[in-house]
């Protein structure tokens, strides 16, 4: 017959002796639970950090987009102003060209200034002979040497 040493015959229930393995397993389970708790805390911290960093990046992107949008609006405003000034400039050029039109000048001369066109007897033509003249510098003809000319000028200043 096989005897079980942990069992005693009688009315009392069997006695369980505490084993060292049970205490070590409990300590290991407790250490594992603490490690797991620590990992969960680190994970939560990393999750919160990642969320904050992501939010900051998105906020920065939105801010940059608003700056770009504002600059685009400014550029569009300047373009509109440029087109308005260009149109005003074109109108002024047309006005200036209309003032230099010969018919407008003639009408102004007749109406405002009381001028008249010249008659044939009032026109006189002059005949002027045009002659081309070239004069040579005598100093250059006499002194062909540039260094001599410079030396002469220096001596004139010193005298």
Task: Describe the protein in words.
The chain is mainly α and 159 residues long. Helices cover 68% and strands 0% of the residues. It has 4 helices and no strands. It has helices at residues 20-99, 102-111, 138-142, 146-158. The chain starts with 19 loop residues before the first helix and ends with a helix. The mean pLDDT is 82.
Percent strand equals under 5%
Largest sheet: none
What's the number of helices? Answer: 4
How confident overall, as mean pLDDT?
82
Overall spatial form: elongated
Instruction: Calculate Rg over CA atoms.
Output: 56 Å
Number of beta strands: 0
Helix content: 55-70%
Order of helices and strands: HHHH
Tell me which oligomeric state these chains represent.
single chain
Roughly how many Å apart are the termini?
151 Å
**Unreliable stretches, pLDDT < 50, 5 or more residues?**
none
Q: What structural category characterises the helix and strand content?
A: mainly alpha
